C-alpha cells in the first residue's frame, strides 16, 4: 500500500482534473448544498469516485469502516424513506426551510420521530439544521431525493425491496441448496412470501411496480448504458441486406430493435416476448418503424422455428435473469434456427474475473447480488459465458467480447460453427467443447489465441 502522503498526492492530481470541470463550465465547486459535479461527463465519474475513497477508508480505520457499512441501513433507512424525501410532491407544503413541527404536520409522523431520524441523517450531510433557528433545510443529497423521481425510486427500491430481500439469501441456500436456480425460490420470493416472480408479484401493486420501473430507468440512463454500444460492437453493414432478419429475444417493447432499425436500412426486426408484452408493445412503436419491426409471441423456453434462419439473434438483459440450467435451455432453443453465419449478440454486464474498486466495475458485482436476490440468477465473467454457451452447444463460438470505452455493458459476439443444414444429434456427438481458449485483455476485448 502506498503511504498516506503519496495517496494524498494522487488525490491532489485527481482533484485538479475534477476542479477543471466547474472552472471550464463557470459553475461553483461542489458542496454539500449543491452537487455541481453531478453532471460530470461519464469518463470523469470514476475519477470522482476514486478521488478519496481509499484514503477515506484508511483514515477511518478497519473497524469503523466495517461498522459504517453495517450501520448504513440503520443510518439511512428511516431517514429518507419516512420523513420528507421519498415522496416528492407529497410535501409541497414545506418551504425551503421547515421546523420539525412543520415536517411532522406534512408527513403525519410524530415530531419526535421527525427530529431524531433526520438528525441521524445529518451526520452524513443528509438535511442540515440551522444552529440558531433549528429549522431544517435540504442538502444536495436530500434535495435530489425530494426532486428527482427516478432517483428516489432507485433509492427506495434498494432500501425497501432489495436490501431486506437480500437478507434472505443464506436462508434460500440453506433451504433450497447453493445451486438454487429457480426464480420462484429466490430471496425476493421468500421475503415476500410468494412463489410469483417479481414482475407478476408487483403487477398487483401499482406503486411498487411504478417504483421498480422508475428505478430501472434511473439505473440505465447515461452513456455507460447506451444502445450505441450495440451498434459499435458489431459490423452491422455486413448483415444489412434486403431480406435480412434480426430476432430480438425477450425484446420487451423493442427498445433496442427500434434503435437498431434507425441505424440500419434493410434489416427487419422480429421482437419476441410473452403474450402480455407483445400485445401492448406495438402501440408504443413510432409509425415509421411499423414496417421494419414486428412483434411476435414466443416463449424462449421453446425452440425457435424460424425459416430461413435469421442473420442474428439479440439477447439484451436476458441471460443474467436466469441460473445456468435455464440459461442453457434458452440457448439450446436457438439451435434449430442457427445456421453458418448466424450471429448471437449478447448484451450484458461481463464481470471481471477479479475484484474491482472502480465505480462502473463495482456496479456489475452489485447487479450480480441483485440478480441472486431477485431471480436466483447471476452476472457472469467472460469465461463463464463461454462455458455457458459451450455447455448449451459446442458449436457456439465466442468471437469477441467488447466493452466499449466508458461503458458498463459488454457485447458478446457469438458465431455458429455448425453446418448450414439443420443440426442433428450426430452433430452434437461429434463436436467436443474446446476450453481455455479465450484470453481477456486489459481493455476488455477478448480474442482467440
Ligand atoms: C429484463 S427484460 C429485457 C427486455 C429487453 N430485452 C430490453 O433490453 O429492453 C426481460 C424480458 O424477458 C421477457 N421474458 C421473460 N420470460 C420470457 C419467456 N419465457 N419468453 C420470452 N420472453 C420472456 C420479459 O417479458 C422481458 O421483456
Automatic annotation (TrEMBL):
<dbReference type="InterPro" id="IPR016461">
    <property type="entry name" value="COMT-like"/>
</dbReference>
<dbReference type="Pfam" id="PF00891">
    <property type="entry name" value="Methyltransf_2"/>
</dbReference>
<dbReference type="InterPro" id="IPR001077">
    <property type="entry name" value="COMT_C"/>
</dbReference>
<dbReference type="InterPro" id="IPR029063">
    <property type="entry name" value="SAM-dependent_MTases_sf"/>
</dbReference>
<dbReference type="GO" id="GO:0008171">
    <property type="term" value="F:O-methyltransferase activity"/>
</dbReference>
<keyword id="KW-0808">Transferase</keyword>
<keyword id="KW-0949">S-adenosyl-L-methionine</keyword>
<protein>
    <submittedName>
        <fullName>Uu.00g023000.m01.CDS01</fullName>
    </submittedName>
</protein>
<keyword id="KW-0489">Methyltransferase</keyword>
<feature type="domain" description="O-methyltransferase C-terminal">
    <location>
        <begin position="221"/>
        <end position="392"/>
    </location>
</feature>
<dbReference type="GO" id="GO:0032259">
    <property type="term" value="P:methylation"/>
</dbReference>
Amino acid at each position: 500500500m502506498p503511504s498516506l502522503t503519496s495517496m494524498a498526492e494522487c488525490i491532489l492530481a485527481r482533484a485538479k482534473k475534477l476542479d477543471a470541470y466547474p472552472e471550464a463550465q463557470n459553475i461553483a465547486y461542489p458542496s454539500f448544498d449543491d452537487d455541481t459535479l453531478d453532471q460530470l461527463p461519464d469518463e470523469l465519474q470514476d475519477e470522482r469516485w476514486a478521488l478519496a475513497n481509499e484514503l477515506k477508508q484508511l483514515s477511518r480505520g478497519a473497524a469503523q469502516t466495517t461498522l459504517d457499512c453495517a450501520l448504513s441501513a440503520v443510518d439511512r433507512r428511516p431517514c429518507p424513506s419516512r420523513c420528507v424525501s421519498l415522496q416528492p410532491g407529497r410535501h409541497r407544503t414545506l418551504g425551503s426551510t421547515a421546523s420539525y413541527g412543520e415536517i411532522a404536520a406534512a408527513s403525519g409522523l410524530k415530531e419526535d420521530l421527525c427530529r431524531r431520524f433526520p438528525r441521524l441523517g445529518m451526520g452524513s450531510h443528509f438535511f442540515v439544521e440551522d444552529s440558531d433557528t433549528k429549522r431544517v433545510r435540504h442538502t444536495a443529497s436530500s434535495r435530489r431525493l425530494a426532486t428527482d423521481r427516478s432517483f428516489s425510486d432507485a433509492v427506495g427500491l434498494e432500501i425497501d425491496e432489495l436490501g431486506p430481500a437480500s437478507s434472505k439469501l443464506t436462508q434460500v441456500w440453506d433451504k433450497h441448496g447453493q445451486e438454487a436456480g429457480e426464480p420462484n425460490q429466490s430471496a425476493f420470493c421468500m421475503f415476500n412470501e410468494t412463489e410469483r416472480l417479481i414482475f407478476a408479484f408487483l403487477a398487483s401493486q401499482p406503486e411498487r411496480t411504478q417504483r421498480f420501473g422508475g428505478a430501472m430507468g434511473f439505473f440505465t440512463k447515461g452513456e455507460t448504458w447506451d444502445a450505441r454500444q450495440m451498434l459499435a460492437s458489431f459490423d452491422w453493414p455486413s448483415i444489412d441486406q434486403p431480406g435480412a432478419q434480426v430476432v430480438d429475444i425477450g425484446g420487451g417493447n423493442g427498445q433496442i430493435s427500434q434503435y437498431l432499425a434507425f441505424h440500419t436500412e434493410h434489416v427487419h426486426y422480429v421482437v419476441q416476448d410473452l403474450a402480455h408484452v407483445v400485445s401492448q408493445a406495438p402501440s408504443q412503436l413510432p409509425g415509421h418503424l411499423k414496417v421494419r419491426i414486428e412483434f411476435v409471441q414466443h416463449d424462449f423456453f421453446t425452440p425457435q422455428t424460424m425459416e430461413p434462419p435469421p442473420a442474428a439473434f439479440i439477447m439484451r438483459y436476458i441471460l443474467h435473469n436466469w441460473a445456468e440450467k435455464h440459461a442453457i435451455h434458452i440457448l439450446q432453443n436457438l439451435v434449430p434456427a442457427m445456421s453458418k453465419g448466424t450471429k448471437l449478440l449478447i448484451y450484458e454486464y461481463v464481470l471481471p474475473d477479479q475484484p474491482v474498486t472502480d465505480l462502473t466495475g463495482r456496479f456489475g458485482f452489485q447487479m450480480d447480488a441483485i440478480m441472486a436476490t431477485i431471480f436466483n440468477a447471476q452476472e457472469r465473467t467472460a469465461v463463464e459465458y463461454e462455458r455457458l454457451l459451450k455447455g448449451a452447444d459446442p458449436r457456439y463460438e465466442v468471437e469477441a467480447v467488447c466493452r466499449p470505452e466508458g461503458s458498463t455493458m459488454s457485447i458478446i459476439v457469438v458465431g455458429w460453427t455448425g453446418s448450414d443444414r439443420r443440426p442433428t444429434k450426430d452433430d452434437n456427438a461429434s463436436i467436443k467443447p474446446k476450453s481455455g481458449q479465450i484470453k481477456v485483455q486489459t481493455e476488455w476485448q477478448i480474442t482467440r489465441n
